Structures are given as structure tokens and as C-alpha cells.
Amino acid sequence: MVHSTRRLIARLHARRVWHAYLFVAPIVLLFGAFRVVPSLQTLLYSVYRVELLRGRFTFIGFENFRELLADPTFHRAAWNTLVYVLVIVPVSAALGLLFAVVFDTRFPLRELFKALYFAPMVTSTVAAAVVWWWLYNPQFGLFNVLLRLVGLPIQPWLMSSRTALLSIILFSIWKGLGYNMVIYLAGLQAIPESFIEAARIDGAGAFQRFRRITFPLLAPTTAFLLIYNSIQAFQVFDQVFVLTSGGPAGSTNVVVLDLYRQAFERYNFGYAAAEATVLFVLILGVTVLQYVYSKRFEVSY
Amino acid sequence: MNRRSALKLALSAPLLASRRAWGQAKTITLWYPAGDITAGAAHFTDKSFFAPFEAKAGVKVEAVGLDYDTMQQKIFAAAAAKNVGDVLFVDGSWVPGFLKEEMLDAVPDARAKAWLDAVSPEIRTLSDYGKGKMWGYPQYGIDIYGLTWNKDHFKEAGLDPEKPPRTWDEFRDYAKKLTKRDAQGNITRVGYAIRHVGHPHGVVHKHFWALYGAGASLVDDPLALRGGKVNFNNDGGRAALKLVLDMLDVDKSTSLNFPDPRAALLKGLASMQISETVSIHERAPKEAPGLKWGLATPPVRKAGDKPVTLLGSWLYTVPKMAKNREAAWQLLEWINTPEQDFEMCKKYAATPRYKVNWDKEPFKSNAYDQALKQIYPYGKPLPVNLGLNGVMDAMGGAIQKTWHHEAKLEDALVEAERAANKAIADAAK
Predict the structure, then answer these.
(1) What is the pLDDT at residue B359?
(2) What is the pTM of this model?
(3) What is the Cα–Cα distance from B339 to B413, expressed in whole angstroms?
């Protein structure tokens, strides 16, 4: 009797597992076909000279990587990407936190302002970039009109290699601010009021409460945003493509734009795959580092 | 409806659909750049454009507009997936890249010979990829670059509006006189507008006249598909870059704050610019109806030199992996007959390709067409080298770096030479 019950349970369990596999199968298959296989293909292509239309693949070992490391265009693209990441990631998170703290208090039209700040996040990057292209126009753009109004010298923005990357960074910060704010806001609202209340009773001031209670408790949120922002920033493409095409003089060329050009304009798919592989390793490394390091700052009360 | 009849209907639906499709005429697709990228492509949206061919051949033509900036990439990706348009209307500067991948069908030799014998010299130059080999047919209304200027600005600056600058010295002098500034000294109108941002290829296109006019060139053998060396790190290349650099730094008659030369001319923000004449011709009536503009060859380095300008073109091509190659070639044969050339050029006010059509009205007495005809002999096409994309990227980078003071002129050219020669060597592998 016991034996047959066990068998029945095992059969039911097996059926349940089979059903579970069946339900997840479509997404696993889609993810495999459109994410995993192309990623593996890219890794593989990086050690080949690829002539896609002719179907010719010549194994060349690490030749693509050797060329990459000696290529000044790639160096410039990697440097620009790094500068972009190093500015975007902390600034976006810091501004997101600042705005989240502001929106965590009650004031008239709060929800409207929240929606306004979040709106860029749900706007297409290409559409928003086209609008910013006009805002940055040295002759008619709003930014120079405002600078003229307050008596400051007008700026060339996207037209100069000195200001173009900064202009793209400003756009990206504006675009991502709402997302950072909303995530931090969710983090802030998850902090139990009792902690803040206890600190207040103990005589802690607003800044102390923020530094000792709120900010440490936001560590998981901060870690998530740093990782998310880094991954996004390393892959920056749309705004650069629309606003500057990597110019002037390569001053805004970034790794993804460079690999896109190598692949689809010069048909060097092997070389482009090597660039993608380097980028993948970089992103993975930074993500792991951030994850491990952020664990140290997690607290529980 | 019971379950059985619902099942029957579901099973028979695909069969009915396929029968319906079977009864329809064959459809071929033509991919072209949407928008106002090229005047010739805009005609594909005219429903009557393909109607005579469709009636004659029993083949329906579906024109598919693609975004210009990503069109080359889309074509390549679609070709790799073997799902590309049957006819591709492509920018001439993309062709070497496609040839590198052996993507295009060649025009049959006999047909190519007949075409090359019958068309005007500039069309012959654009069609012939060496030894009479053709990979497509250039579109009518070809894209020649010219100096265009605002006649009212000339008058205002005390210059003869009918006499454009003929030498580089005159050009600099005119540009200085035409430049206007506000009370703070900011330039509000440039004498000459330059293209210095955006895709490097566009930057090279608009500086081609100075580069070639000074005796430099992109590659040493323009008709060699493989191999060769670049030919711009020399006196000519340096002089061409220095011309604009001096206008920027010494004369202050041009500025990096004016990104699009054509728009600047049309908006009255520039007095002179050198780019696609066809574009000004098409856009001026809509965007600047009151603009009085002139058209001439770009200035030469010194008196007595022969002007040089860029002769570009859009081509009708058929990819090897087209699903309806036979019908695609049929369409191309039809579009490119002398009769169709005449009809379409007359209808769309474009310049014809066949020699015989140039002797007919309205082309014979049209002032704009005749002005273009005067410029055509000075036109040079881009080289056909398989590494052209890399060469253009390198040269465009050198121009931008020099004008933006990112690098010294000599250093920028050395770096561009190295990168471009590598691109040529890589493409030849």
C-alpha cells in the first residue's frame, strides 16, 4: 500500500515536472534561438575571418583580437565608452536618488511631476535624440537661446569634438533620470517607517537619518542601479548614432557603434565579433565586481 | 457551426489562400531610400511609374522605402538571410562593399556594351567598373556636385552675382567678403558652409572637389577592385585640408557651427556651398522659393587648372540572391531603354542618360540641364576599390580631426593613410 502510494506520488510529481518544462519550453526555445545561439556564434566568429554572404569562414586564431588591440580607432572608442560609463553611472544614480528623496515627500502636483520626469524613459531614444539634435543646434537651438538670454557664450554642443561627448552624456542622463528615480523611490518606500521613527526619537537629524539609516538600507537598490546603468552605458548606441554618428573626428565613437560599422559597413564580421567579445568580458567583469563589492555595504537592522 | 465544420474550414483556409495567391500576378520588390535623399528615388512613390511595365510584363512591382542611414546594413542583413529585394536602388559608394561580398549580379556583357556605347560620357564613366564590366544601371538625373551660391548675397557684398570665384584665392576672398557677424563678433552667416559632422563618408563627398582638384585622390588606381595604395598623404591632400583650415582659423569665413551646407544655403545662413546640385534644384522651390542661386564648377587651386568635382549616382542593381532575378532584369531592361529614359526625364524634369535624348526638347533648351551639362565633364566618380568604405572612413576622420583641431594636419593624414591602406589590404584578402 505504502509502496503503491509512493509510486503514485512519484508519477504525479514527474507529470508536474513534465508540465513545468512544457510551460517554460517556448520561452527557453525563443531565448535560446535569439539570444544564446547568436551569442555563442559571436564568440565563435571572433576567431574567424567571416565572409558571410560567400559562406566562407577561415580560422585565424586570435588575429582579430591582436588587430583590435593595435587599432587606434578601437582605442578611442573604448576610451569614449569608458568615459561615458564613468560619468553616466554615478551621476544618473545620484540624481535619481536626489529626485526620489524629493518625490518621497508630499507636495502639490507630485504625481504629475513624477510622470513628467519618468516620461523620457518611455520615449523612444531615437525620437528623443532627434528632438535634442534641434535643441543642440548652435543657431536656433533652445540651449544656445537660453545661454544668450543669460549673457553666457553660446556652445557648439554636438558640432565640436570638445563638447560632443558631454552633450551625449547630458542627453543620456536626462533620458535615464526617471528610471533611476522610480527605482530609488520604490526602495525608499520599502524602508520601514519604524526605523526612521526610532532614529528620530534618538535625536538623529534629517541628514544623519539619511546617512545612517536610509542610504545603507538602499544598498541593494543602489547595487541594482549601478549594475543596470553600467550594462546600459557600455552598450550605448542609439543616441550616438542619431546625434553624431560617432563624430566629430571620432570624439563620440563608442564600442558598439564601432563594431556596428565594422560589421555592416565594412563587412568585417570576425573583427566586429572580437569587439563584441571584448565588450562582453568587460561588462561581465564590471558586473561581477560591482555585485561582489556592493554586498559589503548591505546592512540589516 | 459544429466542431467538425469548423475544423474543415480551418484546414481548407490555407488551401484557398494559396489558390488565390496562385491566381495573382508575380510581385517583385524594389528597395529604395525613402525621403528626400535622392530626387530619383522619390519617383517610385508615383503609382504610375511602374504601371506600363506591370501591364506589359504581367509583373507587379512593389516599391519598398527604407531609411537611408541604415539601408546598406539592412540590404546586407537581408541578403545574408536570402530575403532581399529583387531590385536594389543603391548609392554608388556602397557598390564596392557589395562587390567585396560578391553580392551583385553583373549586367550581361552584350547588354553592357550596348549601354556603354549609347549613353553620354559621364554615364559611361559611372557605369563602367573596368573593362566594360557593369554591376547596375545609373539612374537618370545624376548626382554631380557643384558650387552653388546666393546671388543676392553676392550683390550685397559688392560681388558680381553672375561670376562665381574661379580659383582658391578668389574663393577665400569672396568668402571673407560674404561672411556676416553680429555685434558680439559671432558669425551669423558664413561665406562658405562646410560639412564637418555626421558620417565620415558625407564629409569626404563634400571635400572631394578640393582633394582631387589639388592633385590628390583617394586611391592610386580608381578602377582597381583589389590592392593599390591611397594617394592623399601628399602635397595635394595637405593643400586641400589647409584651404578650409585657413578659412576657419585665418579668414574666419566659415564655421563649425553650421553643420549642413545645403540647409545653410537654403536658409540664407551661407552664401556658398559645394554639394549635390540636384538637391538644391529640388529643394529650393519648396524650402527657399525666393532664393536666386547660381551653379558652377568648384574653384581650382590656381588659374589654368582643370576643375574636378564628385560625380555620384544611384544605381539599379539586382542581387544574386533575389528570388525573382529574371523579372528583376526585365524591369531594369524596361526602365533603361532610350524611350523610358526620355519619358521619365521629361516627366520628372531630370537629365537624361542616352546621348540621343540630350538632343531632344525639353533638355536641349533647359537652362538648368544645360548648366549641368557644362559641369559633367569635370566629374569624377568614387573609386571602385573593395576597401573603399575603410578609405572613406579614414579620410573623413582626417578631415574632421584637422578642422576640429584634434590633430595636426600632417599627423591626421599619416594616420588616415595607415588605416586606409590597411582597409585596402584587408579587403583584398
Answers:
(1) 87
(2) 0.82
(3) 47
Q: Look at B257 and A139 and tell me if their CB atoms are within 8 Å.
A: yes
Query: Quick check: A31 and A250 in contact, CB under 8 A?
Result: no
Three-state SS string over B190-230 comes to EEEECCCCCCHHHHHHCCHHHHHHCCCEEECCCCCCCCCCE
Question: Residue A53 is nearest to which of B80, B199, B389, comparing CB atoms?
Answer: B80
Best CA proximity match to B164, nearest among B310, B302, B275, B298: B298
Q: pLDDT, tens digit, for every residue of A261-280?
A: 999 888 889 999 999 999 99
Q: How far is A92 from chain B (nearest CA, A)?
A: 27
- Nearest-CA residue of chain A relative to B200? A247
DSSP A122-145: HS-HHHHHHHHHHHT-TTT-HHHH
- Which amino acid type is present at position A272? A
CA dist A200 and A190 (Å) reads 18
Beta bridge partners of A7: none
DSSP B305-324: PPP-EEEE-EEEE-BTT-TT
How many Å lie between the alpha carbon of B74 and the closest alpha carbon of chain A? 8
Question: Closest Cα to residue B317, out of B26, B27, B32?
Answer: B32
Residue type, B287: E
Beta strands B187-193 and B270-276 are parallel
Q: How many CB atoms lie within 10 A of CB B116?
A: 16
Question: By the CB < 8 Å criterion, does A216 face chain B?
Answer: no
Q: What's the CA angle centered on B424, arms B421 and B427, to 5 degrees? A: 150
Nearest Cα of chain B lies from the Cα of A113 at a distance, in angstroms, of 35
Is a pLDDT exceeding 60 seen at residue B20?
Answer: no
Question: Given a cut of 50, is residue A49 above it in pLDDT?
Answer: yes
B59 in Cβ contact with B327 (< 8 Å): yes
Cis before A248 (ω within 30): yes
The answer to whether A124 and A212 are in contact (CB under 8 A) is: no
B232 and B416 in contact (C-beta within 8 Å)? yes
B377-408 tens-digit pLDDT:
999 999 989 899 889 989 999 999 999 888 99
Q: Could you give the ipTM of this predicted complex? A: 0.76
**The three cell numbers locating residue B413:** 593624414
Q: Which residue of B has its CA nearest to A51?
A: B101
Q: Does B77 touch chain A (CB under 8 A)?
A: yes
Q: Which residues on neighbouring strands pair with residue B296, listed in sequence order?
A: B147
Between the alpha carbon of residue A208 and those of residues A185, A204, A294, B143, the distances in Å are 19, 6, 21, 69
User: What is the number of alpha carbons within 13 Å of residue B225 lying toward its C-beta?
Assistant: 16
Q: What grid cell was written down for A189?
A: 518606500
Cell of A193: 517607517
